[in-house]
Amino acid sequence: MPTDDRSLTPERVLDAYRTVLRARALDDRRFVLNRAGKLAFIISPRGHEVAQVAAITALEPGRDRFCLYYRNFAAALACGFTPEELMLSAFARASDPSSGGRQTPGNFGSRRRGVIIGSSTVGPQIPKAAGIGLALKWRGEGGLCFVSFGEGATSQGDFHEGMNFAAIHRCPVIFFCENNHWAISVPQRLQVAGPGVAERAGAYGIPGVRVSGDDFFEVYRVVAQAASRARAGEGPTLIEADVLRLQSHSTDDDQRAYRDADELAAEAARDPIPRMRDALIDRGWLTPEGDRRVGEEVSREVERATEAAEAAPDPDPASLARHVYADG
Amino acid sequence: MPTDDRSLTPERVLDAYRTVLRARALDDRRFVLNRAGKLAFIISPRGHEVAQVAAITALEPGRDRFCLYYRNFAAALACGFTPEELMLSAFARASDPSSGGRQTPGNFGSRRRGVIIGSSTVGPQIPKAAGIGLALKWRGEGGLCFVSFGEGATSQGDFHEGMNFAAIHRCPVIFFCENNHWAISVPQRLQVAGPGVAERAGAYGIPGVRVSGDDFFEVYRVVAQAASRARAGEGPTLIEADVLRLQSHSTDDDQRAYRDADELAAEAARDPIPRMRDALIDRGWLTPEGDRRVGEEVSREVERATEAAEAAPDPDPASLARHVYADG
Amino acid sequence: MAERNLVQAIREALLEEMERDPRVCVLGEDVGRKGGVFKATEGLQQRFGEDRVLDTPLAESSIAGVAQGLALEDYRPVAEMQFADYSYPAFNQIVNEIARVRYRSNGDFSCPLVIRAPTGGGVRGALYHSQSPEAFYCHVPGLKVVLPSTPADAKGLLKAAIRDPDPVIFLEPKKLYRGARQELPEGEAALLPLGVATVVRPGGDLTAITYGFMRLVTLQAAALLSRDRIDVEIIDLRTLRPWDIETCVRSVEKTGRLAVIYEANRTGGFGAEIAAELAERCFASLDAPVTRIASPDVPAMPFSTSLEHAFMLNPDKVADGLRRLARY
Amino acid sequence: MAERNLVQAIREALLEEMERDPRVCVLGEDVGRKGGVFKATEGLQQRFGEDRVLDTPLAESSIAGVAQGLALEDYRPVAEMQFADYSYPAFNQIVNEIARVRYRSNGDFSCPLVIRAPTGGGVRGALYHSQSPEAFYCHVPGLKVVLPSTPADAKGLLKAAIRDPDPVIFLEPKKLYRGARQELPEGEAALLPLGVATVVRPGGDLTAITYGFMRLVTLQAAALLSRDRIDVEIIDLRTLRPWDIETCVRSVEKTGRLAVIYEANRTGGFGAEIAAELAERCFASLDAPVTRIASPDVPAMPFSTSLEHAFMLNPDKVADGLRRLARY
Ligand SMILES: Cc1ncc(C[n+]2csc(CCOP(=O)(O)OP(=O)(O)O)c2C)c(N)n1
Ligand SMILES: Cc1ncc(C[n+]2csc(CCOP(=O)(O)OP(=O)(O)O)c2C)c(N)n1
Ligand SMILES: [Mg+2]
Ligand SMILES: [Mg+2]
Question: CA A57, CA A45: separation in Å to the nearest integer?
Answer without folding.
Answer: 17
